[in-house]
UniProtKB/TrEMBL annotation:
<dbReference type="GO" id="GO:0003700">
    <property type="term" value="F:DNA-binding transcription factor activity"/>
</dbReference>
<dbReference type="InterPro" id="IPR050397">
    <property type="entry name" value="Env_Response_Regulators"/>
</dbReference>
<dbReference type="InterPro" id="IPR012318">
    <property type="entry name" value="HTH_CRP"/>
</dbReference>
<dbReference type="InterPro" id="IPR014710">
    <property type="entry name" value="RmlC-like_jellyroll"/>
</dbReference>
<dbReference type="Pfam" id="PF13545">
    <property type="entry name" value="HTH_Crp_2"/>
</dbReference>
<dbReference type="GO" id="GO:0016301">
    <property type="term" value="F:kinase activity"/>
</dbReference>
<dbReference type="InterPro" id="IPR018490">
    <property type="entry name" value="cNMP-bd_dom_sf"/>
</dbReference>
<keyword id="KW-0418">Kinase</keyword>
<feature type="domain" description="HTH crp-type">
    <location>
        <begin position="148"/>
        <end position="214"/>
    </location>
</feature>
<keyword id="KW-0804">Transcription</keyword>
<dbReference type="InterPro" id="IPR000595">
    <property type="entry name" value="cNMP-bd_dom"/>
</dbReference>
<dbReference type="GO" id="GO:0005829">
    <property type="term" value="C:cytosol"/>
</dbReference>
<dbReference type="GO" id="GO:0003677">
    <property type="term" value="F:DNA binding"/>
</dbReference>
<protein>
    <submittedName>
        <fullName>cAMP-binding domain of CRP or a regulatory subunit of cAMP-dependent protein kinases</fullName>
    </submittedName>
</protein>
<dbReference type="InterPro" id="IPR036390">
    <property type="entry name" value="WH_DNA-bd_sf"/>
</dbReference>
<keyword id="KW-0805">Transcription regulation</keyword>
<keyword id="KW-0808">Transferase</keyword>
């Protein structure tokens, strides 16, 4: 059972970036929920009844092709929210939203979120900046998947996941990672094997432990840094307006 005493909405960085007055106004509308691994929060073409602000859960935004193959286009963790389609004018999206890492999240009714957005002010500015950062992540993921090696893609994915967790251990099978990156499982096995031989990670039965984060950073492509710096820049600058 969830204990609100050990959870606070400002554990989500997007909510924490709000000015105090706006945060306190939204706080009564935020409901703490647990998101189990594999839970589908939104299907392609579906409408969200709530927006989600993860604290320890990670949500995967991915596209499923007609032949059943899928690939992740972005992830949402404690840095952001699920539900930008509501205020970007599209209402629905062609992607799916599935819980990649089980954990906790705050949610708010979509109607309340839209009311806040349409009133303008700090909430609207912050959400638009987050949307820009998320678009950067989606764009950089497409570039990375096209131009960089599977090992570099795996390092990028691992680092982005670690940034959203308070642990150096991930519960994740190679099959699921392969599905996220849209590559063959054999490619992930080979890439993970190289990282394990280098003493950077340890992999056993669906558990990945990062032993050397600096080593992981040394192997990653520039895509990780581009996404990380864009999120930091947009959250830092929001207080200026």
């Amino acid at each position: 059972m969830l204990s609100p005493l050990s959870h606070q909405p400002n554990q989500n960085h997007l909510l924490a970036a709000l000015p105090v007055a706006e945060f306190e106004r939204l706080k009564p509308h935020l409901e703490l929920v647990h998101l189990p691994l594999g839970d589908v929060l939104c299907e392609s073409g579906g409408r969200l009844s709530h927006v989600y602000f993860p604290t320890s859960a990670i949500i995967s935004l991915h596209y499923i092709l007609e032949n059943g193959a899928s690939s992740e286009i972005a992830g949402v963790g404690n840095e952001g929210m699920l539900g930008i389609s509501l205020f970007m004018g599209g209402d629905t999206t062609p992607s799916w939203a599935t819980v990649q890492t089980g954990g906790d999240s705050y949610r708010m009714k979509a109607a309340i979120m839209m009311q806040e957005f349409n009133s303008g002010g700090p909430v609207q500015r912050l959400l638009l900046r987050y949307a820009q950062a998320l678009i950067t992540q989606i764009s950089q993921t497409a570039v990375c998947n096209r131009h960089h090696t599977i090992e570099q893609q795996l390092c990028r994915w691992l680092l982005l996941t670690l940034d959203r967790l308070n642990s150096e251990e991930l519960i994740m099978t190679q099959e699921l990672i392969a599905s996220m990156l849209g590559v063959r499982r054999e490619g992930i096995t080979e890439a993970a094997g190289k990282l394990q031989q280098a003493g950077i990670i340890r992999y056993r039965r669906g558990h990945i432990t990062v032993l050397d984060r600096a080593g992981l950073t040394a192997h990653v492509c520039e895509c990780y840094d581009v996404v990380k710096k864009e999120f930091e820049r947009l959250f830092r600058d929001v207080q200026k307006y």
